Amino acid sequence: MSVARLTFVHAKYSLIETSRIPIAIIGSLVFPVLSLLFFVVPQRVVADDPLYATQAIISLSVFAVLANGLFSFGLGIAENREKAWDPYLRTLPAPGISRVLAHIFSTGLMALVSIIPVIVVGGLFTAASAPLPNVLAGFVALAISSLPFMLMGICVGYALPQKAAIAVVQVLMFGLAFGGGLFLPPILFADWLNTLSMFLPSRSAREIVVWAVQGGELPGWAVLGWAVWTAVTLVLALVLFRRDEGRRFR
Fold first, then answer.
1. What is the pLDDT of residue 18?
2. Pairwise CA distance, residues 207 & 199, whole Å
3. Is 27 within 8 Å of 68 (Cβ atoms)?
4. Given this model, what pLDDT does residue 23 score?
5. What's the confidence (pLDDT) of residue 105?
6. 66 near 150, Cβ under 8 Å?
7. Fewer C-beta within 10 Å: the chain N or C terminus?
8. Sign of the Cα pseudo-torsion (153, 146, 229, 227, in order)
C-alpha cells in the first residue's frame, strides 16, 4: 500500500475516532464562534465597521486553528503515548510519515470546519466583507501560518504527560491569543505590549492572514517571525520525537 493510501486510511480512522466523542467536535466549533458573539458582535463600533469587523473575524479564525493545533496535537499525542495502542502502531510495516501527514490532514480539516461558523456568524451580524479570491487567499495563508501551532502542539505532546499537557496547552492557547491580538486589536495595545506581541507566532499569523484578505503591505517582521517559529518548533519537535523513541523503543 502506498504512503498516500496509508495516509488516507489513517486520517479517515482518526476522524472516525474523534467523531465518537461529539463534545470534542462541538468544543472546537463553538468556542471561536462564542468569542465572536461575546467580544465582537456587541461592540457595534467594531461590528459596523467593515475594516475592523473583517480583521476581528480573521483574528478569531487564527484563534480557531491555534486552538485546534495545540489541543489536537498536544493532548492527542500525550494521550496516545500513554496507551498500548500507540506502540503497537509503531510495529506495523508503515512509514511514520503517513501517520504524521494523516494527523495534519485530520487536524487541518477540523480547523477548517471550526472556521465556518465564525464566517457565517460574522457575515450575518457584522459588516465584514471581502472579495471571494481574497477569502480563498486567506484560507491558504491560514493553512500556512498554522504550522508553528501544530509543531508547538507536537512538542508539548512528546515532552509532557497528558495531565501536564492539558495545563500547558491552556496556558499557551490563552497567552498566544491575548498576546497576539486575537481577542483585542493590537491597535489598542500599549507600546511595550505591541512590541512584545510582534515576537509571538500568533501575531505573525494574524498579520499574514490580514494581508492576504485585505491587501496592503505585508510586514517583514511577520514573515520573519513565522519562519523563525516554524524552524525552531520543527527542530524541537524532531528532537523530542527522537528522545521519546529512544526512551520507549530502545
1. 74
2. 12
3. no
4. 67
5. 79
6. no
7. C
8. positive
**What is the C-alpha separation between 129 and 141, in angstroms, rounded?**
17
What is the rounded distance in angstroms from the CA atom of residue 243 to the CA atom of residue 157? 12
| Per-state percent for the chain, helix, strand, coil, to nearest 5 | 80, 0, 20
Q: Is 158:237 a contact under the CB 8 Å cutoff?
A: yes
Residue ranges of the chain whose pLDDT lies below 50: none
What cell numbers appear for 142 in the block? 491560514
Q: Are 37 and 117 in contact (CB under 8 A)?
A: no
Predicted pLDDT of residue 31:
78
Query: How many residues are given for the chain?
Result: 250
Give the model's pLDDT for residue 104: 76
Give the separation between CA 56 and CA 53, rounded to whole angstroms.
5
d(CA 124, CA 122): 5
Assign 184 to helix, strand or coil.
coil
**Cell numbers standing for residue 75:** 493532548
What is the residue whose three cell numbers read 500500500? 1
Residue closest to 153 by CA, chosen among 84, 95, 240, 86? 240
169 burial class (0-12, 13-18, 19+ CB within 10 angstroms)?
buried
Which residue carries 500547558 as its cell? 168
pLDDT value at position 39?
A: 82
The predicted structure's pLDDT at residue 34: 84
pTM: 0.85
The pLDDT score that the predictor gives to residue 210 is 93
